């Protein structure tokens, strides 16, 4: 039995080298929770509170040792 060699070189058309790829990201569906949960014979209320809004602060600081690049436009 003969198997040809495996090629790991991507086959892309010349006009598709830098084409954009749309990626759709959606959250997972929220499961339906019962009002009461019985765990080991104890009745518990299924209540998990989360803040409605979450804010993340991002502070940009200069590098400690400076940067090592030429000034001007970059790609």
Tags for this model:
2 strands, 75 residues, two-stranded antiparallel ribbon, little secondary structure
Fold and architecture overview:
The protein is 0% helix and 11% strand. A two-stranded antiparallel ribbon has the order 1-2. It is flat, with a radius of gyration of 27 Å.
Mean of residue pLDDT?
A: 70
H/E topology pattern: EE
DSSP strand count: 2
> Uncertain regions: pLDDT < 50 for 5+ in a row?
none
How do you describe this structure in short?
The protein is mostly loops and 75 residues long.
Chain-wise SSE layout:
Layout: E1 36-39, E2 42-45
Antiparallel strand pairs: 1-2
């Amino acid at each position: 039995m003969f198997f040809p060699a495996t090629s790991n070189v991507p086959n892309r058309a010349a006009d598709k080298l830098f084409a954009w790829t749309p990626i759709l990201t959606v959250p997972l569906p929220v499961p339906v929770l019962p009002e009461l949960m019985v765990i080991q014979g104890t009745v518990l209320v299924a209540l998990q509170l989360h803040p409605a809004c979450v804010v993340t602060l991002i502070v940009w600081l200069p590098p400690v040792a400076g940067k090592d690049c030429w000034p001007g436009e970059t790609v």
